[in-house]
Amino acid sequence: MTPVWADPINYIIRLLRELLIGWGLPPDLTHFVMSLLGGFLLATGAMMFVIFLIWYERKLIGRIQDRLGPNRIGPWGIFQPFADMLKIFIKEFITPAGADWLPYNLAPVLSVGSVLLIWAVIPFMVSVYGVDLNVGVLYLIAAGGFGVLSILLAGWGSNNKYALLGGFRAIAMLLSYEVPMVICLLIPVMYAQSMSMNTIVKAQDVWFIVTAPVAALIFFITSVAEIGRAPFDLVEAESELVAGYNIEYSGLKFGMFFVAEFLHAFTVSLLFSILFLGGWRGPGAEQIPILGFIYLVIKTFVVYLVVILLRGSLPRFRIDQMMDINWKILTPLALVIVMVTALVDKAVSGLDSLIKAVILLVINLIVLYITSYLLKQSSKRLMARKVVSEKRPVAVYRPEQS
Amino acid sequence: MTIMQIFFLALALITLFAAVMVVTARRMMHAALWLILALLGVAVSFALLEASFFVVVQVVVYIGAISILIIFAIMLTRREMLDRGSQLTQNWIAAIIAGAGVFITIVAILSVWSGFSLIPADIPKSAGDIAALGKALVAPDQYMLVFEVASVLLLAALVGALYVAGERKK
After folding, report:
1. Across the interface, do B29 and A103 touch by the CB < 8 Å criterion?
2. Where along chain A do its domains lie?
3. Which residue of B7, B57, B68, B81 to mutate against A (max A Cβ within 10 Å)?
4. Structure confidence at residue B50 (pLDDT)
5. pLDDT over 70 (residue A387)
């Protein structure tokens, strides 16, 4: 039996189950009650964690922009999100005239719900996970589909043409970026021979970012696009669309969209760490499960840092540039890398795992090199068109003819 | 009545209610939302049959793509937000009689089937093996031909959509 400090969550679960059975509940009902309690605690914990995430992001963005970030309320401004929460709670719900009641109110709920649904399949430690679905990876896509639906409902239900336009653009972007994401998610599935998240983590003796860097890159870019973050934050471009699909939301409904966006950013970092950075794997993670949790948190925060850095430093893409990147670069690259990986993986399937990892890494780097070469060629062709005339100096020195 | 039967009954009632609301809702947007609920009900009944792959595929394809397409079509073609006119056609009594007749016929035919009153058996864990599904789809002696014909059908739809919606180069 693992000691208490090594695996506290399972210890508490055992205690609770023995307590409930001791009170005389039948085992089915005990299981049902405990599942309900576990789901409720996970969802509430995730929402509570967003408070820390908001503070972290604001401080970091402040530092990137050479300022301090919130620093008045509490030491280092840590109580700032609480103040924000209080303000959002006490704001009035103004429903626009002519708004469709059902879509308007359902949208924020679906938005947060779709993110929380993803947390059900994430393996936090070797022994703690919500549910071990054998179609875990596909489930992620399904839960993302609900998020897309919520944006559609928000745009339509607001009875506002800016909201509708914002919703259309958001959905065009989200649906387009799902295509390369789904295709490149096939690669961890191919390596692990299963779609279950637990199996993918357990199969990462060598982290998948080493054996499939192209897939990791595509997944990272498409995930940043899926969460609507800069440089893909066209959906809430303040200068263009006045907050896009959440114009008409005030108070806690807007707060829900806000929470959903931050939580989605963190969830996407969590997914990247699980699928490509080895999840909870690390020295000693199987024997002492709580160490696995610590490794996962460290990896996730590294990825989250990169996401926030991207937000703070890159300008926004135009909608046609975004569609270009998706359909002309990411989708063909994803298709090519899936085919190449399938062939190479089958060809080297009998070899030692280290040699296999090196060969796969080399093949991925070759594909990346070819892609960058082709991109350079096409950008040279674009830049070769003359759009302005040659520079002419205003005054020309002409020596006197004598 | 086991607990699964009660659960299935509740699920079936919700799905049927949503399906009725699809065709009787006043506003088309609401009809689309009720359709999403009905498709979710079908997904949950897949889950009751322990076919986990089809649950997620149903949600991804139907709710994540097809419903959004339907909602787009509604949003882009409805100039005004209100839908006017009576919702019932002229021969609605005949339609109800025909619908009820088909329902009674199907139930009567099914009730003489031996499996009508069975409790579903427990499916072994290995039956949900996705690898077996994948192999069956591309094995030459199983479903490869069907798979390829379906791909050609999708390709034809894609090409047709591009042709219809594409701009003619003058």
Report:
1. yes
2. 91-376
3. B68
4. 79
5. no
Indicate whether B139 and B68 sit together in one domain: no
Give yes or no for A138 touching B (CB within 8 A): yes
**Cross-chain Cβ contact B65/A141 below 8 Å:** no
Give the span between the Cα atoms of A20 and A27, in whole angstroms: 9
Residues of chain B with C-beta less than 8 angstroms from the C-beta of A146: 63-64
Q: What is the pLDDT of residues B42-57, one digit of tens each?
A: 999 998 887 888 899 9
In terms of Cα–Cα distance, which of A6, A3, A63 is closest to A291?
A6
Query: Residues of A with CB below 8 A from B47's CB?
Result: none
**pLDDT classification of A397: cutoffs 50, 70, 90:** confident
Q: At what angle do helices A136-157 and B28-48 cross, to 10 degrees?
A: 160
User: What's the pTM value of the predicted model, to 2 decimals?
Assistant: 0.88
CB A242 within 8 A of CB A162: yes
Average pLDDT over residues A120-128: 86
| CA A116 and chain centroid, separation | 13
**Residue A70 preceded by cis peptide, ω within 30:** no
Q: Are A300 and A273 in contact (CB under 8 A)?
A: yes
Asked if residue B29 is part of any domain, the answer here is yes
Judge: B68–A148 Cβ closer than 8 Å, yes or no.
yes
The structural domain count of chain B equals 2
- Residues A248-266 have pLDDT tens digits of 788 888 888 888 989 999 9
Instruction: State whether residue B35 sits within 8 Å of chain A by CB.
Output: no
pLDDT digits (tens, 9 = 90+) for A49-69: 998 999 999 999 999 989 988
Q: What values do phi and psi take at A129, rounded to 5?
A: -155, 160
**A354 touching B (Cβ < 8 Å):** no
Q: In this structure, are B14 and B76 located in the same domain? A: yes
Give the residue-averaged pLDDT of A191-197.
Answer: 88
The reply to whether B63 touches chain A by the CB within 8 Å rule is yes
Q: Distance from B67 to chain A by nearest Cα, in Å? A: 9
CB B30 within 8 A of CB A102: yes
Contact A102 B30 (CB under 8 A): yes
The residue range of the domain holding B44 is 1-81
Query: Distance from B152 to chain A by nearest Cα, in Å?
Result: 18
Q: Test A149 with B56 for CB contact under 8 angstroms.
A: no
| Closest by Cβ to A171, choosing from B52, B63, B68 | B68
pLDDT at A2 over 60: yes
Pick the last residue of a domain from B43, B62, B81: B81
Domain finish residue from B81, B97, B112: B81
- Nearest chain B residue to A195 by CA distance is B130
Position B92 scores a pLDDT of 85
pLDDT of residue A231: 83
Chain B, window 101-140: residues with a beta carbon less than 8 angstroms from a chain A beta carbon: 128, 130-131
**DSSP state at residue B79:** S
Nearest Cα neighbor of A159 from A95, A99, A247, A103 is A99
Q: Are A166 and A153 in contact (CB under 8 A)?
A: no
What tokens does A33 get? 């009650």
Percent of all residues in chain A with a pLDDT value above 90, rounded to a whole number? 28
In a domain, B153, yes or no: yes
